[in-house]
Amino acid sequence: MRTQPACWIALLLLTAPAASSAAPNHLDVIVSQDRGLTPTDVKAIQKDLSKLPAAEQQRYLSALRLDPRIVGGDPFDIATAPWQVALVKGYAANRYQFCGGTLIAPDTVVTAAHCIDNPIVKNDPLRLDIVAGTAFFGEGGERIKVKSLAVHPQWNATNLDYDVAILKLAQGSTLGRPIPIDSDPANPPMQVTVSGWGALSEGGRSSDELMGVTMPLVDAGTCSSPESYGASITPRMLCAGVREGGQDSCQGDSGGPLVRDLGPNARLVGVVSWGEGCARRLKYGVYTRVSEVAPFILAFAP
């Protein structure tokens, strides 16, 4: 879950449950301008949130950390990443993409828990569909309904540990191609590739076209150093990127694939999870380590 662009924050609050009494007037302005957050925006959003009940405030504050995108990458043809899917709102006719996912079987998608446990989906499979088989999520490919979903039983929305979920589709994808998961630990030195339709820069617009970037894995010691993420990195997390920044996932890529050996021998090693900003120096992208949650995944797609 990356720092959110303004349009995502606005969407979360504008789709607040009926019990919410606060009207997030300031957020209407942000949506209409489709721009990044300023300090003034942050203060206004905090003011809006303060009007909500305490429990609801925490729910939204957790959700606001959602969502990374591709920075420093290149356009990807869907043939390069045929396992890539987009998560879109199931209750809207248009294809509003808010997260990514990975086909691991024709009827099974791996994504991030925070893409499911949030105010948009509300852990309800009827509230999301997936789009597969296209590099342009807004057109082409196939849109498939979700039959059921499961979030890892140890998912922790506070520290984002065990950030993984499974979607079972109402029918198998015919245009996408599943990717095997890698049950062996992925460690440096290793080059990995992340893909998605997220923002092309921190706070920027998302991409209509699938993007991807290849970068190195980062050892746990470096990623958990004080100047990086310190004690926030758990054994279920994997870091990737370059020290000086410039290559990363960003808002909107959450739930998408981190892959090793791109090509016929590709394996899924990570799920886009969180990070501080996008492509910042020493602030690497953080991914759910697939090898650590493999038993949960394989229970749904043996």
Automatic annotation (TrEMBL):
<dbReference type="InterPro" id="IPR018114">
    <property type="entry name" value="TRYPSIN_HIS"/>
</dbReference>
<protein>
    <submittedName>
        <fullName>Serine protease</fullName>
    </submittedName>
</protein>
<dbReference type="InterPro" id="IPR001254">
    <property type="entry name" value="Trypsin_dom"/>
</dbReference>
<keyword id="KW-0964">Secreted</keyword>
<dbReference type="GO" id="GO:0005576">
    <property type="term" value="C:extracellular region"/>
</dbReference>
<dbReference type="Pfam" id="PF00089">
    <property type="entry name" value="Trypsin"/>
</dbReference>
<dbReference type="GO" id="GO:0006508">
    <property type="term" value="P:proteolysis"/>
</dbReference>
<keyword id="KW-0732">Signal</keyword>
<feature type="domain" description="Peptidase S1">
    <location>
        <begin position="70"/>
        <end position="302"/>
    </location>
</feature>
<keyword id="KW-0378">Hydrolase</keyword>
<dbReference type="GO" id="GO:0004252">
    <property type="term" value="F:serine-type endopeptidase activity"/>
</dbReference>
<keyword id="KW-0325">Glycoprotein</keyword>
<keyword id="KW-0720">Serine protease</keyword>
<dbReference type="InterPro" id="IPR033116">
    <property type="entry name" value="TRYPSIN_SER"/>
</dbReference>
<keyword id="KW-1015">Disulfide bond</keyword>
<keyword id="KW-0256">Endoplasmic reticulum</keyword>
<keyword id="KW-0333">Golgi apparatus</keyword>
<dbReference type="GO" id="GO:0007599">
    <property type="term" value="P:hemostasis"/>
</dbReference>
<keyword id="KW-0356">Hemostasis</keyword>
<dbReference type="InterPro" id="IPR043504">
    <property type="entry name" value="Peptidase_S1_PA_chymotrypsin"/>
</dbReference>
<feature type="signal peptide">
    <location>
        <begin position="1"/>
        <end position="22"/>
    </location>
</feature>
<dbReference type="InterPro" id="IPR009003">
    <property type="entry name" value="Peptidase_S1_PA"/>
</dbReference>
<keyword id="KW-0645">Protease</keyword>
<dbReference type="InterPro" id="IPR001314">
    <property type="entry name" value="Peptidase_S1A"/>
</dbReference>
